[in-house]
Design goal:
The chain is α/β, with parallel strands linked by helices. The chain is 48% helix and 16% strand. Strands 1-2-3-4-5-6-7-8 form an eight-stranded parallel beta barrel, surrounded by seven helices. Helix 3 links the parallel strand 2 and strand 3. It is globular. The relative contact order is 0.13.
Length: 252
């Protein structure tokens, strides 16, 4: 089976960089995959597109060196199964609020006897290889989003879920939940919460990822020791690049 390169990066002590696709354009997803990112994540929770478009985006990413991943719209098992069957090598799942939620999600990403995933790999077999079924349980990432007070309160139990690959911190929603607002970084309370999640999960050998809203936060998360950092999304990067190019011309 095709190996998940993020596993090798973690083993080598190297941080992975993850692109975030909020725009449903295959060409744009393909460009990101060739831009130097280690993974590209298709966002079905907030991206203005559905599953059919997500399949095309995963196909585009699969033509690049980056690992194809997806954030599901929720914890619905049917959607998670379909995204994995469509070739996603990792699922970032929002709305994980308890150890039961985390365990159900983790089992949805594993075949029996380790989980409850139904067999029918479809595109996953094409991308992953003919031995996909034998290797998928060890190569597919299941990352539970930590973005609520409930998840924060039970992070120790979530980190102990055996089949869960790791966690992915959503700092905007976590900041809102803490009463700090969606742009709370670098308020000390949020920084402390993020560091606590990281330390608990690292102690259990779990993979750790986080979304970052600025270059300063990118650097801070790297120094803190996250395995994967998402430096904004494609729409933000497109806007920032365009503004950087036109501002000097407007100033003339």
């Amino acid at each position: 089976m095709r190996e998940n390169s993020l596993i090798a990066l973690k083993a080598a002590g190297k941080m992975a960089l993850n692109a975030w696709v909020s725009v449903g354009c295959g060409y744009q997803a393909e460009l990101l995959g060739h831009a130097g990112f280690d993974a590209v994540t298709v966002d079905l929770q907030h991206g203005p597109y559905g599953f059919d478009t997500a399949v095309h985006l995963l196909q585009a990413i699969s033509s690049t060196p980056a690992m194809p991943m997806a954030r599901s719209a929720g914890s619905t098992l049917a959607e998670i199964h379909k995204l994995l069957d469509a070739g996603a090598y990792g699922i970032i799942c929002p709305l994980i609020e308890s150890v039961d939620d985390a365990a159900a999600f983790a089992r949805a990403c594993r075949y029996p006897p380790r989980g409850d995933r139904s067999f029918g790999p479809a595109r996953g077999l094409t991308y992953g290889g003919s031995d996909y079924a034998a290797g998928a349980d060890d190569q597919i990432f299941s990352l539970a989003m930590i973005e609520t007070l409930s998840a924060l309160d039970c992070i120790e139990q979530i980190a102990q879920v055996q089949e869960l690959s790791g966690v992915y911190v959503g700092p905007s929603d976590l900041g809102l939940a803490m009463g700090l607002g969606s742009s709370a970084w670098p308020q000390p309370a949020l920084v402390d919460a993020i560091r606590h999640v990281l330390e608990v999960c690292r102690a259990q050998g779990k993979y750790t990822g986080i979304y970052s809203s600025s270059l300063a936060m990118d650097q801070a998360m790297r120094e803190m020791g996250f395995d994967l950092v998402t430096p904004g999304n494609d729409a933000q990067q497109l806007r920032a690049g365009a503004q950087q190019r036109i501002q000097p011309l407007r100033a003339i």
